[in-house]
Amino acid sequence: MDTLLQQLINGLTLGAVYALVALGYTMVYGIIGLINFAHGEVVMIGTMVAFTIIVSLAGSGMPPLLILSVGLLIAVVACMVLGWGLERVAYRPLRHAPRLTPLITAIGMSIVLQNVAMIIWGRNYITFPPMIEKQIYEVAGASFTNVQVAIVVLAALVMIGLTYLVQRTRMGMAMRATAQNQHVAQLMGVDIDRVIAMAFIIGSALGALAGCMVGSYYEIAHYQMGFMLGLKAFTAAVLGGIGNMAGAMAGGLLLGIIEALGAGYIGDLTGNFLGSHYQDIFAFMVLIVVLMFRPSGLFGERTGDRA
Amino acid sequence: MAEQQTLLAAHEVAKHFGGVKALHDVSLTIHRGEIYGLIGPNGAGKTTFFNCLTGLYRNEGGHFVFDGVKLEADAPHKAAEVGIARTFQNIRLFGNMTAIENVMVGRHLRTRAGVFGAISRNSATRAEEAAIARRADELLHYVGIQERSHDYARYLSYGDQRRLEIARALATEPKLLALDEPAAGMNGTETEALRVLVEGIRRDGVTVLLIEHDVKLVMGLCDRVAVLDYGEKICEDVPAIVQKDARVIEAYLGG
Amino acid sequence: MSGRFGRSPRGMQHWLGFLLLLAVLLAIPFVAALGGQAWVRIANFAILYVFLALGLNIVVGYAGLLDLGYVAFYAVGAYCYALLASPHFGIHLPFWVILPFGAAVACLFGVLLGAPTLKLRGDYLAIVTLGFGEIIRIFMNNLNAPINVTNGAQGITLIDPIRIGDFSFAKTSTIFGVTLSGPQKYYFLLVALAALVIVVNIRLQNSRIGRAWQAIREDEVAAKACGINTRNIKLLAFAMGASFGGIAGGVFAAMQGFVSPESFSLMESITILAMVVLGGMGHIPGVILGAILLTGLPEALRYGIEPLQKAVFGRMIIDPESLRMLVFGLALVLVMRFRPAGLWPSSLRRRELSEATD
Prior knowledge:
The complex is a heterotrimer.
Chain A lengths: L1 H31 L6 H19 L6 H28 L8 H22 L4 E2 L8 E4 L2 E4 H23 L1 H11 L1 H6 L4 H27 L1 E2 L3 H16 L4 H25 L9 H15 L14
Antiparallel strand pairs in A: 1-4, 2-3
Helix pairs in contact in A: 1-5, 1-8, 1-9, 1-10, 2-3, 2-4, 2-8, 2-9, 3-8, 5-6, 5-8, 6-8, 9-10, 9-11, 10-11
Chain B lengths: L5 E12 L2 E12 L3 E5 L6 H8 L7 E6 L2 E2 L5 H7 L1 E3 L12 H8 L8 H6 L2 H21 L14 H13 L5 E5 L7 H16 L3 E5 L3 H7 L2 E6 L2 E6 L1 H4 L3 H9 L1
Parallel strand pairs in B: 3-8, 3-9, 6-7, 7-8
Antiparallel strand pairs in B: 1-2, 1-4, 4-5, 9-10
Helix pairs in contact in B: 3-5, 3-6, 5-6
Chain C lengths: L8 H26 L2 H26 L7 H15 E2 L4 E2 L2 H23 L4 H21 L20 E2 L2 E2 L4 E3 L2 E3 L1 H24 L2 H11 L1 H6 L4 H27 L9 H14 L4 H30 L6 H19 L8 H8 L4
Helix pairs in contact in C: 1-2, 1-6, 2-6, 2-9, 2-10, 2-11, 3-4, 3-5, 3-9, 4-9, 7-9, 10-11, 10-12, 11-12
């Protein structure tokens, strides 16, 4: 059946987005062991900023691709600042506090960001202006758009770049060292504050990019969009082994595909008892199953044991 | 000798971290009623052995037989249940609980009251609660810190914290008390008091496994001693012989 | 026992304080009714939240587990009641059957969810409970076809009130010459339930189980070495919290006569958590304060900020609902930063949080 191929394509697109967002969770978790609940909201703010820029430039006569790029760039920068600010203002003062404290702060920040976004951009769904002329390609009975191609290609490029950054550069090495053992890294002269800030900044930049992708793909945005997206991306990170960057990428893709296939076939599987509006439960099912049977994720956890 | 039956037998216990072999097929036997010393240079694997024995780590190879029963790996509370109590090298007390409360937590294992008992405060629960407090008080007397009973554990002096940890461990009614460097950081007087305490514990029927750096203390106190070096047992015998063993001397001096 | 309420001056003070509290609690529904039954309902919700928050306090405050899906158990209890005492299925079981049943079902869900996750690091539980809350909501919203179980987003209406023989909590009636309205009757029921949960909280705190929870919070490794089966003891707290959530849900369904998925959003979970955290985790008076403050907050915003905004700006800048959430969010962040033990902490928690260890 051609549904299979179609769902695989859709899953790949969604998975690329999850992977980018999951990287933000995994980097922060790998280094300071915090689930940054507000990360989903950073993604949402990225989408909203890009939206505002694009809409305000839409009548300026600039070429659409340029407008899109400017929107994306500003969104990325805005989120980097936001991510940095979050760490600096909310989390850094709590670095030595008991575990529950920064976690609750993260939830608080998530609520604050969501409601600030609601005040700025309103309660309603926002139509994301389609800047690229949508083209539809057909292969073997399945169709996909140039937007999907752009999402997958761009995500792949960014992930390759990130892998290079982490494996080859001094900053990347400092990050890996800090993830391994913060104390030893510090003794070796690594500036921990800078490394942690970088994890937030890079994660937020990836989040903004992912947000713009979601916006262009679904062509809508909403102040609550970050919540579900964040939750799923976190699941992807756990699936791949939280703290493990390659795992986050693989986990994201895998989750996207599981979800797309699940949504495509859930009706058949349950004799139409459950329909496709149950799509959202797959991520949680995956999360619970992974935690039950393989809590260190498919590719192993990279955070050292803190016993 | 009939009395000298084996209490604990470790069979080829192995544990590694990444590529590093922390324990290399370590086998040893501890007899009922003895004080058994485990010594070795820093990083020799003594604490790793402890952690495997008490279920904090999962050993990759080998197993422990305690009191005739094979121990389940990776289950610290079960180790305590069968009768292995321990202290920690870097003292792990419940700092914001009082000394007596710390010992009362140690009674958890040997008492029963559940949620319904707690809520209804029936006579059985009240009696049990009183017994817990009484036993905890006795143990504080036993280790000699009864006057600190209602002080928070974190405000106790270093030596008293060590004693409190021993009292808490004894509260679980162990057959084997495993002490991880109990004399670390103690002065001569405190060490001497500790020696008296450990001998008393043995006299009261509890077998003692002792990891220690203070070689003098170990040699004077222990009935038998095993020496670990780079995760391997290089010697196991009475102190007088261990002291003369060439490999032991090399391990301590050559390191 | 006699020591606490003896004839010493201190004992007398206790008694006087207790009598005063009783008098205030007795007076509230009648004083509130002067402003209309709506005020009695607000008081009822405040007490329902006290109940919920103290249930969650066992999980978060005592066992130190972060439960972000508490409302899911509340929802389970509410829907159990709604389905078994309404025309929806034509089943009308008495409340004393359904309330325990709802608590048991919620407890079962708690155990199913907690058993695999509680052996892992604490933060996983936060995410799993969050996800569970969403799953429950998705099912509530969509389980109306092909078989109509939950009636979807419309919810279930005409739920039976709590009734003992001919005595219905929904109607006004006169007892011993005192006329009580429906909400006033529920008020007294809720006060009784809240008293129950307070007793449970107090007694658990100073018990073998309570000490085990505290030990786990302080040092989980040492607690294990003391022979505490930490997974089971945590599961106990989690399941107890879930059961209380289930009971509260049942009472909520009976009191409202109507349930829909809208009442069980994530924000509801966060609100209850905020009550516990802001008031003072593990400290019963603190949690009660938190619950009352945060129940009162939306009313204060409605009657205070709304006219204020209109007066100053001439129109509404921020609607009260998002302002409420904004205040919640900011309060969580600020309290964690500057008063991590809550507004009214126990001396114990202040100690725990004053030391900055790992």
